[in-house]
Amino acid sequence: MDSNAIQSSTQTSDSALFSLVLAEIGKLQARFILGDDVLLPVCQEFAELSQSSAVLLVDVNSISVAEMPEHAACWCHDTVRFLSLWKEVRDWPFAEQGPVVHRWRSFVVWPLPSTNTLMFFREPQAYWLEFLMEHHEPLAQSLMGMLAPQTRSWRAQSGQHNLCGYDAEIFRSVVSNSEDMILVLNLADTGESTVIYANAAATSISLYPRSQLIGHPTAKIFKSNNTEDENIASLMASLEAQEEFDGEFWLERADGEKALLFIHLVQLGNDGQPGLFALVGRDRTEQKKMQVAMARTQKMQAIGELVGGIAHDFNNILGVMKGNIELMELKNRDEKLEKYLNTAFKACQRGTDLTRRLLQFSRQEQFNACNCSVNEIVSGLEDLFSKSLTSSVSINIDLASSVSSDIWVDKGDLEDALLNLAINARDAMGGEGRLIIRTGEEDIEGVIQGPGGSTNIKPGRYVWISVRDTGTGIPPEILEKIYDPFFTTKDKSQGTGLGLAMTYGFVKRSKGYMNVIDTGPEGTEFRLWFPASDVEQVNKSLTEPRQQSPRTLQVEGKLKALVVDDEVELLQVLSDYCGMLGIEVESFSDPLQVKSRYGSDAGEIDILITDVLMPGGMNGYELAQTLHQNTPDLKVLLISGFIHDIGVTKKEEMPYQVLNKPFDLESFSNALKQAGISFVEREGE
Questions:
Q1: Average pLDDT, the chain
Q2: Is 391 or 8 the better-scoring residue by pLDDT?
Q3: pLDDT class for 50, splitting at 50, 70, 90?
């Protein structure tokens, strides 16, 4: 049943919904004529029609018993709800009153005439009570032909199956409230086994009502549809041979989904019942999902550390190449060489962009985070989305007015992430289809399920962004790989495989969550959740004076810089840059040499320019702190693209100016200005 169709019917007219309900009842009647048990499907269909969280069919005479009767039929969207549902329902106080549709607590209750049957709808939509009050008589008449025979079968079966000599009351007190599936099986001389008892958890795990468990063959419940279910075959063979069994396999539930069960089968050993077995099944589905999620997180962390290290080394190489090419450009007077130098510089810039993406995936800090309005950012990207997608892709942006909280993220990274998702959606649709971007805000706790696995979310207030396409979906076999760096299903000329990896890294360091909510033939939906910000925004002017060309600048007055970098070639580039800006340089390749030379007093040094990550037992951040203790006027410029290894995770925690590698002369001079160095126009320029 399509929930969109239901919503459309309710919005159109009451008669349209009535026609839809009758049509669904007609389908159920066809199944009943073919011999199907339709009690569970009735609950499921009416749960969809009423948009209820649960629907229960039960005999009115059983409403006050301690546990849910075996003959009751129940459908819950949340399987855990099944275990507590009966505790709510059994307090219903109107058994002695006339059968009238009414609201009671969170339920709409529909007494069905002639069958002594009650149908409870938990948390249905607002329209459902009025709808039932208007149409309950013709709907009940349509259902009676199915429900009357099957409810009579309820009562016929209720006394047939007993525990054959076991004290039923003691047995039920032990197992009825267990969270494990517990079945008692009776093995006949023919080798066929039948379920003669099922506890409540058996229904909550399998989603089959006990009326479809008790009295039915074990093979019907534990059926194997493929050759991978060898343990199911082993279970049935052990049962037939009257042997114990321990194993794990996937059980197909009533809704077609699968639950991972660890099964223990043991013979009860009663002298009067040699063929009596107890089967205990522990649901390990969530545990398995947690293991998969943890393995994925550990893998991504390991890949992040590896990628970060590679990108750091690559940045040093690019810094040397980019710096030397720029120095050649600045000193070159041959126009013929200009073209080649420009080409080489552009190639370095492409490498810079690549390492930036790698570091965005691997790093953990939010050095440029600020309060951002999700609706404003998405709205501001609409034109860019249109330009990035083909004219055959229509864009539908739905910004929820209820979003009142900001989020604390790097605005540029968020824009890059959304653009990457939009481009991936375009490619998934083959350049033709519909892109839907929505926003919202809600309180969330617990686990968010999706085809890509479960996501455990820290309880709190979250702002979310949904990006959905109308493509063909993501194949199940690659869902676990989509966040891996360089993994792509596209042609090499169309992508690097870093888009989703970069987005995943950004979301994680923003303390957010990301998951595939839905994927299939009708498209894929990614959703990002970000914690609502509790940080007060500090208003800063984003307008800066126009920068002068570094070729025409020199430092004001006399200035001496202490330059430290373990890469000798990069150290030379830095020294040359300083020389061009009129800065006197003293250079070192080891911070320990600096400490030996100056101790904790920088003396006549005006500014320390140092790489951050260096071997030898001291990094640039520690060197700056050491020199700054006794030289408080010392200016510091840190140079790195990989900060988080030193323990600083937030921009506000960093006391020094940071320049990311690789950089050019203009970026270098701008960073010096931000570190407090004054420049003047070069004479004669």
A1: 80
A2: 391
A3: very high
Give the type of residue at 70: E
CB within 8 A of 158, min separation 6: which ones? 69, 70, 71
- The DSSP code sequence of 222-242 is S---STT-HHHHHHHHHHHTT
Could you tell me the strand order of the sheet in which 584-588 lies? 584-588, 560-564, 607-611, 635-639, 657-659
Q: In this structure, how many other beta carbons lie within 10 angstroms of the beta carbon of residue 16? A: 14
> Which tokens go with 442?
């809600």
- Between the CA of residue 277 and those of 188, 232, 266, what are the distances in Å? 11, 16, 6
* Of residues 131 and 322, more confidently modeled: 131
pLDDT of 165 > 50? The answer is: no
pTM here?
0.44
Q: Which two tokens stand for residue 142?
A: 């349509």
CA atoms within 13 A on the CB side of 368: 11
Give me the phi and psi of 571, to 5 degrees please: -60, -40
Q: Which residues sit opposite 110 in a β-bridge?
A: 119
Helix (H, G, I), strand (E, B) or coil at 650: strand
Percent of the chain topping pLDDT 70:
79
Phi, psi angles (nearest 5°) of residue 614? -140, 145
- H or E segment at 680? strand 679-681
Give φ, ψ of 59 to 5 degrees: -70, 130
| 512 contacts: CB under 8 Å, gap ≥ 6 | 407, 409, 462, 528, 529, 530, 531
CB 173: neighbour CB atoms within 10 A? 12
Write down the pLDDT at residue 102: 94
In 491-503, which positions are buried (b, 16+ CB within 10 angstroms) versus exposed (e)? eeeebbbbbbbbb
Residue pair 254/146 in contact (Cβ under 8 Å)? The answer is no
Q: For the chain, what is the largest distance between any 2 Cα atoms, rounded to a whole number of angstroms?
A: 112
Please give the average per-residue pLDDT across 249-262, as a whole number.
Answer: 86
Beta-carbon contacts of 229 under 8 Å, excluding residues fewer than 6 positions away, are 249, 250
Residue of higher predicted confidence among 132 and 268: 132
What does the pLDDT read at residue 107?
A: 95
Query: Which amino acid, residue 524?
Result: T
Band of the pLDDT at 304, cuts 50, 70, 90?
low
- pLDDT at position 175: 63
Burial label for 383, CB within 10 Å (0-12, 13-18, 19+), is: exposed
**Environment class of residue 402 by beta-carbon count within 10 Å: exposed (0-12), middle (13-18) or buried (19+)?**
exposed
Amino acid identity at 123? E
Cα torsion 134, 139, 144, 147: sign: negative
Give mean pLDDT, residues 562-571: 90
131 Cβ contact partners less than 8 Å away, ≥ 6 residues apart: 14, 17, 18
Gap between the Cα atoms of 18 and 3, Å rounded: 15
Three-class DSSP category at 44: helix
Burial class of residue 318 (count of CB atoms within 10 Å of its CB; 0-12, 13-18, 19+) = buried
Could you give the CA distance from residue 29 to residue 42 in angstroms, rounded to a whole number? 10
Q: What is the pLDDT of residue 585?
A: 93
pLDDT on residue 315: 77
Q: Is 36 helix (H, G, I), strand (E, B) or coil?
A: coil
Residue 506 clears pLDDT 70, i.e. is over it: yes
Q: What is the pLDDT of residue 79?
A: 58
The torsion angle over the Cα atoms of residues 594, 597, 603 and 607, rounded to 10 degrees, is: -20
